[in-house]
Write a structure and sequence with these properties.
The protein is mostly helical and 462 residues long. It contains 17 helices and no strands. The protein is 85% helix and 0% strand. The two termini are 24 Å apart. Mean pLDDT is 84; it is low at 1-11.
Length: 462
């Protein structure tokens, strides 16, 4: 009995929570970094290829990402549902949540395809240059076919993460990243005997790499002995309507929450496009660096959802509290380190995306460095709001966080970005300062929401 009591105490220790969070979080962080590396490779190689091609791909890829990320809301809804079912040792409900999530994602991909096909007139209506809009359309009409595998692999990522078996997610993403880099180099520039396709080549590479990642993950889910009892694809056509609507009900506000933040950054890209092609291209470089940094707290936020969901499924309120404190502390420390890198080495980081032979490289460097200095300032608040959102999803609280996000990012963040950048004439740094304000408000309000919900759950479960 004493041995069992000691084991229980050890499992609740701070060191146990730190190691459990890292064991789950590091593969998820690595996966996020590997996935953003695909987009980063596009930006780097197209930056070598030409300024107009880089600026156009920034517009096209962010349009894809805005629509894709709303669908990710439904994939994210799978995570707490499957994690809580896993905490209850209920493989049947895990399978139903994942399978019906896939149904929703496939239907969503079919619905959004026409919107991506007609991106060019939408960009022109938003004030973008016709030549950039045309190049962005060339990119997106190929890249849009990657919506199907990209969303389906997110559903499988939720399945593996909920089971605390995220290693295959990382390895498949790394393989896809390598394939994307090789194809990018060949198809953008015409190396390895492949045709020189420019922005179209980058799009083809992205579609192929997303498909490979999904196929590896699907094969692992079907063939690995640890996952056989879940039978994810057996009778895939069979509906489970209660699970379908549960995923939809939880995923819709998550989608709007994510879309509110991503839409804010997309709106910032549009405003940067008003300032000029070089400013937009510099924004693309800075946003890519900020996105790479953000992958760490984002991966940890998924780990937070799983850890909180599993603890909630076991009705373990003490474990829930310690898990939340652990993941928040780790995210804050890592974000401070990232901010220091941005502040101390901005020129070196931006230069990674530039070809010195490009006539615009000096101007791009001069415009991008101040943006990166502002990005350093909002690393902390961005990490805190991401973790808070993940914690709330772990207890299936998504509707109020959606309202908080929409208010923080749009009436507050977007207005501040426009007012500072365009209205007061501070340009790019003003637009980015507005982004920081919106993220800061969200960080405060989401954490207050989780504290209140946790206190309520303590009373109910107690």
């Amino acid at each position: 009995m004493d041995v069992q009591a000691k084991a229980a105490r050890d499992s609740q220790s701070w060191s146990a929570h730190i190691w459990a969070t890292l064991a789950l979080g590091l593969p998820l962080v690595g996966t996020q970094i590997a996935q953003i590396a695909i987009a980063t490779t596009d930006v780097v190689m197209l930056g070598w290829y030409g300024t107009e091609e880089l600026a156009a791909t920034v517009l096209g890829s962010q349009a894809f990402f805005v629509i894709y990320i709303f669908g990710v809301g439904f994939a994210s809804a799978i995570l707490p549902l499957a994690a809580q079912a896993e905490g209850r040792n209920d493989p049947t409900h895990v399978r139903r949540s994942v399978r019906m999530g896939m149904w929703i994602l496939l239907l969503y991909a079919l619905v959004v395809m026409p919107f991506l096909w007609y991106l060019e007139p939408a960009l022109i209506a938003l004030g973008q240059k016709p030549e950039l809009a045309a190049l962005a359309s060339d990119y997106i009409r190929i890249a849009q076919w990657g919506m199907f595998p990209a969303l389906m692999m997110m559903a499988l990522r939720s399945f593996f993460a909920a089971r605390s078996r995220a290693g295959i997610v990382l390895w498949s993403a790394l393989i896809g990243t390598v394939i994307n880099g090789i194809l990018n180099y060949g198809l953008i520039f015409g190396h390895f005997g492949l045709p020189e396709m420019g922005v179209r080549g980058a799009a083809v590479a992205s579609v192929v790499s997303s498909t490979v990642i999904f196929l590896i993950m699907a094969g692992w889910a079907v063939l690995h002995p640890r996952h056989l009892e879940y039978r994810l694809f057996q009778r895939f056509w069979r509906p489970e309507w209660p699970a379908f609507f549960e995923v939809f009900r939880l995923g819709l506000p998550i989608g709007f929450t994510i879309l509110a933040e991503v839409g804010l950054f997309m709106a910032a890209s549009v405003m940067m496009g008003w300032l000029g092609t070089v400013q937009l291209a510099a924004h693309g470089i800075a946003i890519q660096l900020a996105s790479i940094s953000f992958m760490v707290p984002l991966g940890l936020s998924h780990a937070a959802t799983v850890r909180i969901g599993q603890a909630y499924g076991r009705a373990d309120m003490d474990g829930l509290a310690r898990a939340s404190h652990t993941v928040m502390g780790l995210a804050v420390l890592i974000s401070l380190f990232a901010a220091a890198l941005f502040w101390l080495f901005p020129e070196a980081l931006v230069s990674l995306f530039l070809d010195e032979s490009n006539v615009d490289s000096a101007e791009l460097l001069a415009v991008a460095v101040p943006l990166l200095l502002v990005a350093a300032a909002f690393q902390l608040v961005d990490a805190i709001q991401a973790i808070a959102a993940g914690l709330l999803r772990g207890i299936k609280d998504t509707r109020t966080p959606m309202i908080i996000a929409i208010i923080s990012y749009w009436p507050i963040g977007l207005s501040a970005a426009y007012g500072l950048g365009i209205g007061l004439g501070y340009g790019g740094p003003g637009i980015w300062a507005g982004l920081a304000i919106g993220l800061g408000v969200a960080a405060v309000l989401l954490n207050l929401r989780f504290i209140n919900r946790h206190m309520f759950l303590d009373v109910v479960k107690g």
